[in-house]
Design goal:
It is a single chain. By secondary structure, the protein is α+β, with helices and mostly antiparallel strands. It has 2 domains: 77 residues; 303 residues, Bira Bifunctional Protein, Domain 2 (BirA Bifunctional Protein, domain 2). The protein contains 13 helices and 17 strands. The strands form 5 sheets. An 8-stranded mixed β-sheet has the order 1-10-11-12-15-9-8-4. Strands 7-13-14 form a 3-stranded mixed β-sheet. Strands 2-3 form a two-stranded antiparallel ribbon. Helix 7 packs across helix 12. The chain is elongated, with a radius of gyration of 27 Å.
């Protein structure tokens, strides 16, 4: 949620940000300004009436104390109370209308976000690792996983449906190895581990910005007021909802593993093979709460932290800065990290690291108390550290050899218990 100052004082900044994003609204910003003015008028009127009512109450009290007739003043007070009730009802209705529109506005872009209309205009800022040349045809991860008995997508389709998978034997052990390796690394670098719930309430989804805009992309329980989480960002960010943090506690850095659930409603026909795009997938998430002046440095930190995982796995990757037209709804600035996929010789997103400034904190009401100052909203950030399924897919393709074996990355050997996986190993 935006600071109301962007409507009242910095309107040009709001208009410019929406224009750069290419945001199409089904209402005009003038509608919002008109509603805001009406609400300010109503609230001023109610405040004045309450002041008059309080003054009357004191006068009535004096008259009654002196055993004088206060009938006329009591009637005036009652009439004022009725008028306050009428105005309050109007205020609630207008406030609901205002919030419905206000919650549809995305975050304000940071000034250095590159301008562009879509993902084709994102900016590559760094490449790390030269992809090696294979002297054989690289087998796609879904075929290698099936060949080695590590992955079964067909049976998952029978059990559940499309975009699900079974990981088997050493395939399952690799998933668990990646999970533990990532969590161990982040913890050793100062992150506090959380194991979050996979179901959250509607307020949590509003807090991080999934609602109301992305309702169609979420799995909702039919008979209970819960949603399956699309990412651990939701429960971890809402961990501090409606709280005031001590200044001395900041920054707070959490890392959390979770299964994630997404309907992928708008991705029909995309990545239909393999485990790149699933309805259920595993991910390690980093979430940071910090002072506003720290958030730019924290964005660099979590982006470097996500890269560190890939460096330790010795997987080539690149870092992309998202342009204005491709930036997420809640984000003010985002870096995507894309891992090299050897079978297709292209790069695929494996992490997204974002600075949400105070956008989520305003929605979730997360503040901190500086010394000798009133409370302020924190800045929140998050980043994948990493998406486990996509990391596994990249390993299957990059670490296979011409004899049909899968070599295990060095850092995972202690977790998996073998250096090489073949059909006989499984």
């Amino acid at each position: 949620m935006l600071d109301i100052k962007f409507l009242r004082e910095d309107f040009e900044i709001l208009e410019d940000s929406l224009k750069k994003r290419g945001t199409k609204l089904n209402f005009s910003l003038q509608d919002l300004k008109d509603l805001d003015q009406k609400l300010k008028y109503l609230r001023t009127e109610m405040s004045n009436l309450r002041e008059s009512q309080n003054k009357l109450s004191k006068e009535i009290s004096v008259l009654k104390k002196d055993k004088k007739d206060a009938t006329e003043l009591v009637e005036q007070s009652r009439n004022i109370g009725d008028e306050i009730s009428r105005l309050a009802e109007n205020e609630r209705g207008l406030d609901s209308q205002f919030k419905t529109l206000w919650y549809q506005l995305p975050n304000i872009l940071l000034s250095d976000v590159p301008f562009g209309s879509d993902e084709s205009q994102n900016v590559a800022v760094n490449y790390c690792g030269e992809p090696k040349d294979f002297d054989f045809d690289v087998i796609p991860h879904w075929d290698l996983g099936k060949k080695l008995g590590l992955l079964d997508i067909e049976r998952a389709g029978k059990v559940t449906g499309s975009r699900f998978s079974f990981h088997i034997g050493f395939g399952a052990r690799l998933v668990r190895a990646l999970l533990n390796f990532m969590m161990d690394m982040h913890r050793s670098d100062g992150f506090v581990e959380l194991w979050p719930p996979y179901l959250v309430n509607e307020a949590s989804m509003y807090g991080t910005g999934q609602l109301p805009k992305f309702r169609d992309e979420l799995f909702k329980c039919a008979d209970d007021p819960y949603f399956l989480i699309p990412t651990a960002e939701v429960p971890v960010t809402n961990f501090f909802r409606d709280e005031v943090l001590m200044d001395s506690s900041l920054p707070v850095r959490f890392c959390a593993y979770s299964a994630c659930f997404r309907r992928e409603a708008g991705s029909y026909g995309k990545d239909v093979r393999g485990i790149i795009r699933q309805h259920q997938f595993d991910k390690v998430e980093m979430v940071v709460f910090c002072r506003p002046e720290e958030s730019l440095n924290e964005l660099q930190f979590i982006t470097e932290q996500a890269q560190k995982v890939l460096k330790k796995l010795k997987l080539p990757y690149r870092v992309i800065e998202l342009c204005s037209g491709d930036l997420g709804f809640s984000s003010a600035k985002t870096y995507d990290i894309e891992v090299y996929m050897a079978s297709s010789k292209n790069y695929r997103e494996i992490s997204s690291c974002s600075n949400f400034t105070d956008f989520q904190a305003r929605r979730a009401n997360i503040r901190y108390k500086p010394k000798d100052s009133k409370s302020r909203y924190v800045h929140t950030l998050n980043g994948s550290g990493l998406a486990i399924g996509r990391t596994l897919a990249a390993i299957y393709e990059y670490y296979q050899d011409d004899e049909g074996y899968l070599n295990v990355p060095d850092v995972l050997v202690p977790y998996v218990g073998t250096e090489k996986i073949g059909l006989t190993t499984c």
